[in-house]
Queue: 3 jobs
Job 1
Amino acid sequence: MIEASNLNAGELAALLHFHADAGVEFLLEDEGVDRFAEFAASVAMRAPAPAAPAQERAQRPSPAAAKPAPRPVSATAVAIPGEEAVEMARRAAEAATSLAELKQAIDAFEGCNLKASARNSVFPTEVGTLPILIFGATPSAEDDREGVAFSGAHGELLAKMFGAIGIDIAETTLAHTVPWRPPGGRPPTPAEAEICRPFAMRLIALTKPRFIVMLGNFATRYFTGSAEAIHALRGQWFEIGSPPTEAIAMLHPQDLMTAPLSKRLAWMDLLALEQRMKQANA
């Protein structure tokens, strides 16, 4: 990523105009930072420690004789090795014969640390009436709170996007590649993504969609293995799973919120999906 300090005046102005066009009016940290407390702590660390009285120094044990304080016991469960966790997820996923059973298996799964910080396992329990499976990346804060994929602003925009080509989003199957929201909304690590992969692939096998829609960078790379960005992959068709299912890469609703000018690209991709659906039904 290019640092702002490496940009010249013209490039900085162009960057600011881009953010303004995208609707960004000001920048904030995710959490407030008490700079006064930070400064006081740094001053205290630099201040020399007061000398101890001679009698106290004489009674103080030498560093070699002093024993280290015991480490506090962590309440967090010990992480399961990645390969073992993936195998646990695979066995749990393959044993499920319905979406309801798959959701129960995910709720009972203890092999992924993401579950420890999430409120809910966000995963569909029923197949939509339309043979379309839509994958996002990870649950948003609203999804995590409600336990339903695309339940917040992203879902509202997604409904408008698909409504423009006559598709009721409530009749599709909505999911995320990873069923638990990572702490702070960060991207999943490669190990976390691989642990969750058997659940996503089992979802495809159970729903048997005619089309899969991959929204955004993470979901598209997750299924295709490509290192390209979504703007290079959007509008392209891929085959996923066995037997293969046609899948198209599209911009995520968040991409359109960040850069509204990209809506014309999303419209082109929606038209491509509509055309492919008409050809399948012909």
Job 2
Amino acid sequence: MAWLGGLLLAGHAVPAAAQYASGPTVTIEAASDERRRGLGWSDGDPVLRGTLSVPVAQGFSLDGAATTLWGSDRHGGADAVLDLGATYMKQLGGFRLSAEGRYHLFPGASRADDRDWGYGEVGAIAGFSLGPASIDLGARYAPRQSAIGGDNLYLSGGAAMGIPGTPFTMSGHVGRSSGDVRNPVSAARLRPDGAYWDHGVALDWYQGRWSAGLRYADTDIDAPDTRHAGATLIGRVDFTL
């Protein structure tokens, strides 16, 4: 598990922080599950995550993440996922525009069939803030790759609002995953029952360098043999250095 030594040297993208940070930002997080777009990546097991964002120019950052997966069934028995990439953000009054590129690596995934489990994607997000409230619309696209059995498009919308006079923020989102299928087995990694919707709501607490939260996640996938795609409640706590 040589990747573990680099766990705290990689990070998940935190675009808003990256735009205004004067130096590198490191976050350590523990969560009860790893769900992405409503799908379980850690087979329902708790995870640890290390994140790093390094600003290199105004609005531009290099960022990455390392998250434990402990032998993920969805990703060929991978012990972890490394998300590496870059983010560019531009603030125009109350509007936020961002573009990003990510490559996802899966250390420990099976090599029995010489299959490449890594894949890349690009994205764009437009957001608007008004007082303690914000709205975001996003699109992320993974071009055709053998690792995901075709291509994948994820469209999403979300809203968040800080509760006045408290350290709490409420948020929610809805997303749609779709794409072309060339290899149904590989495509099932990101779309186990074809195109689908996911949604979720969250309540987060922020106090200084600490934060914690509860998140409800669900999808409209109802295939009886699909695991870790239904409703779940996820808890997390993190500390930013």
Job 3
Amino acid sequence: MEVSPTEICYQGSKYPHKLGASVLDTLLENGVEIPYSCRAGVCQSCVMRCDTGELPANCQTGLKDTLCSQGYFLACQCKPEEKLSVTLPNDLGMFGHATVVEKTLLSANICGLKLLSFLPLDYHAGQFINLRNAEGCIRSYSLASLPAQQEYLELHIRRHPDGEMSSWLFDEIQPGDLLDLQGPNGQCFYISDNPEQTLLLIGTGTGLAPLLGIVRDALYSGHTGPIYLYHGSGSLEGLYHQEILEQLAKRHENFSYQQCLSAGIGKQPVPLEGLLEKWPGRADEIAFERHIDLNNTQIYLCGAPAMVKAAQRRAFLAGAELALIHADPFLTRAD
């Protein structure tokens, strides 16, 4: 990568910048630690503020207009062609506070958190918020709650091996504790302009959280078209909230729900006899086998990035319009 005459100024130091590199790349290569996670411009963990210099196009995509006007940008997406002076944002307009009101174990490696925000949060079910701990670690979690019916924010947290944030939330956070939060963010939510349209939702792991929120929103809004939810996991412990979803299916004739088990992938041994009839395989494969023509179908894909990417392509080839495919891949630093 060619070295450009530009530089990034941060906290009184100047760092040489390479053409085509992002601000995040430059700072990390020089040993400067700033918050970041997905590096894809989705989670907004790496938001910074530009004090001097001209920001390139597209590095403010997804940020609120009020933040853009103050010079906030996504460090992972900002590839400047001239000198920039940048700082970490202050909390004004970025982070608020919430109290943990309930913590429950949803499965062996998934816990549920219910938070009460100090200030009203204007959000759509299915969007995500960022949580921050005392060490400055920031991670994104999708909202399963429905603002019209629930005063609290509902999150599903999967414990990741050596995960700094998930381990903290699992092991240390308790009801009554305070959390920093930012958001809402994301475009994966129910759109009510066509209530007779078919909705197809496919998720893996805690990708169920935003999908549950979207289903709740659609049913609450009086959606009359068929709603199909496929939730998959590589192990039995990753399949959770079955009773809640089955109750929804009983109360609403237009909603159907299918758990899907990719046998042999998880650590837990799975007896196959009679099981795959109930849990028949990979969620995306089963969904596309059952739904061949996706014309005029609103599609929501949440969870493992590989599944989301493959399902996006398959949905498009099956006739779905790109504008009707909503994707929320759960990207991590490793991804």
